[in-house]
Amino acid sequence: MNSVKGSSRDGPVLVTGGAGYIGTHIGAALMKAGHRIVILDNFSNSTPLAVDRLNSLGLGCAELVEGDVHDEALLDRVFSADRFSGVIHLAGVKAVGESVAEPIRYYDINVGGALSLVAAMVRHQISRLIFSSTATVYGDPAKLPVAEDASLQPEHPYGRSKLMIEQMLQDVAAAQPWMRIMSLRYFNPVGAHPSGRIGEDPKGIPNNLFPYIAQTAVGVRDEVRVFGDDWPTPDGTGIRDYLHVMDVAEGHVAALTHLIDGGGKSGRNLAVNLGSGHGTSVLEVIRAFREATGREIPYRILGRRPGDVAAYWADPTYAERLFGWTAKLSMAEICRDHWNWQSANPDGYK
Ligand code: WQD
Q1: Same domain for 310 and 246?
Q2: Among 28, 266, 288, 318, which residue carries the largest CB count within 10 Å?
């Protein structure tokens, strides 16, 4: 019998930021695995329409609470209403360039929000927490692939805010040894649920490569801007570890199951990579998207983007050892599913 306080094994899972891109896909995987979920979201970068779509998949019905993780009274009401089996914390802001311009907002929302949430969990003795961290805590890695013991040198306020939260959760875990905490470091989540009913719907001009390529393929954008072809890589363009958002979602189900089954480590916040272990260049992604969709993807080579690094991809073996997870979906399946969503929803959820 699990000795941890407060949490039940079969209570609902609270998914903060659960109306967002990653959150809706995690919600789909959790409900498919038989969990009940409660989504807490302030819709600052998402829409309740996404939750309607999630609930239309026939996997279950997510309960939706509109609000902010800073609202301690709201968290007390939510946590008093049920015995939660765990919390997956995604709510936050995540645009690198924006974080450089607005550090106070990034630390307030990301670090302040996580602090408010974990304080409420301690008050209500909810023991299991999975935190959405990021591979950018590694900065420009000295060697590849990147393992969890690589040096942590984030290069912008967004990455620093995520590392601060990991360190704060480590201190909380040490002070509350009954808690079981994991920080999952995402590489580059892309793609969409195979139904084409939920997917990535960035506001305004996409910062990231995949939504920009998909919007170019569907005609919303004229051409893809390739940020530099003079990187020290085989074809000169940047290399990243792209993994299907459904693989990311399954990684959360596997990690939560591991905690519910008594896994995790007393006194420790375990940091775990979620990556495919493969690197793909910008030009290789464009080629894969063209091959998977038959769509022409016009592009233009421009200069490097400030803050970019040449290449990184994950050493994903710790996740496999700890909770038996590996990314299973290929680049072709990523492109097919991303296109399936984009072509059916050229204007996103609007
Ligand atoms: C990928 C590659 C670009 C856009 C960021 C955040 C990270 C995570 C994922 C939150 C790079 C190139 C991009 C474009 C391009 N977000 N590119 N043209 O920068 O690896 O990661 O998003 O957690 O924290 O840092 O992803 O998709 O922006 O860039 O050539 O229009 O594509 O130079 O090589 P990135 P990305």
Answers
A1: no
A2: 28
